[in-house]
Amino acid sequence: MDNRVTTMNKDFELTNGVRIPSVGFGTWQTPDGETAIEAVQCAIRAGYRHIDTAAVYGNEQGVGEGIARSGIAREEIFVTSKVWNTERGYDTTLRAFHRTLADLCLDYLDLYLIHWPATEHRFADWRQINADTWRAMETLYNEGKIRAIGVSNFLPHHLEALLDRATVKPMVNQIEFHPGFMQRECTDFCRANGILVEAWSPLGTGRMLTNETLKGIAARYGKSVARLCIRWALQHGVLPLPKSVTPERIRENLDVFGFEISDTDMQTIDRMAYCGGSGLDPDEIDF
Ligand code: A2P
């Protein structure tokens, strides 16, 4: 499995052979209702075939409606959702999954993720909680209701504990990833274990767009900082999930296959000091 992106390839491959479009459309902070419906329809018209949502975003109904109204066949669109932290455990995860399917008006998901790991600072039995949640994911995967399963915001020590107990290995880990916060230890661990890394907030939730280093590099390519960040993730073999509700930005963010960032510029971006992070540390969050 070689998931380096050239100017041509537009899919990554998961360990079970499922292909996943290499730029996904993010919907975190996209309000439900007409905004979500229109954003998703606009994205699909622009050529996105990968939509990322989560139960906690509160917009699964709008996202599902946007997919339905797009007129594109269901099998051509890769749809991801996530089980929220209050639903951890075996039975609760199964129920949460079926609620998500009903809200999206779908009969299967392409990818389902554990949104955040249970961690030591809140749960003495965090390993067992994650293992129970994972067992539900495996059940749904083995029943054919999900084409691939994974996690989100898992750091290497959370993944190690999960891998010790898992029958099916997670195929994806969706983490915060952008210039100034590339979480190298985590991405290296995932790569070594065949886990595809997806980037949430690939633009640092917009905070990267005014960064002077990035502005200077982007200007030399005649591209926007947004496109530079998305392309940089792809060249690292990381799948970016840019979010926008603005039609021209939605289109712009997919236009990242016609240029290549040089090795020198990749290294300059890689070496940027920490900046623009959300500050959401999986081992410290209180939700
Ligand atoms: P909006 O949704 O109002 O268009 P991230 O993907 O890192 O979470 O960043 C999302 C934020 O960046 C949103 O505020 C979004 O604004 C903004 N954004 C997304 N794409 C672009 C772009 N191409 N140019 C400028 N801002 C963008």
From TrEMBL:
This chain belongs to the protein called NADP-dependent oxidoreductase domain-containing protein
Q: Which organism is it from?
A: Phocaeicola dorei DSM 17855
Alphabetically ordered keywords of this record = NADP, Oxidoreductase
Q: Does the keyword NADP apply?
A: yes
Q: Name one GO molecular function term.
A: oxidoreductase activity, acting on the CH-OH group of donors, NAD or NADP as acceptor
Q: Where is the NADP-dependent oxidoreductase domain?
A: 23-271
Q: Which Gene3D superfamilies match?
A: NADP-dependent oxidoreductase domain
Q: Which domain of life is it from?
A: Bacteria
Entry's family note: Belongs to the aldo/keto reductase family.
Instruction: Give site residues, Lowers pKa of active site Tyr.
Output: K82
State the active site.
Answer: Y57
Annotated substrate binding sites = H115
What the entry lists under InterPro entries is as follows: AKR, Aldo/ket_reductase_CS, NAD(P)_OxRdtase_dom_sf, NADP_OxRdtase_dom
Q: Which Pfam families match?
A: Aldo_ket_red (PF00248)
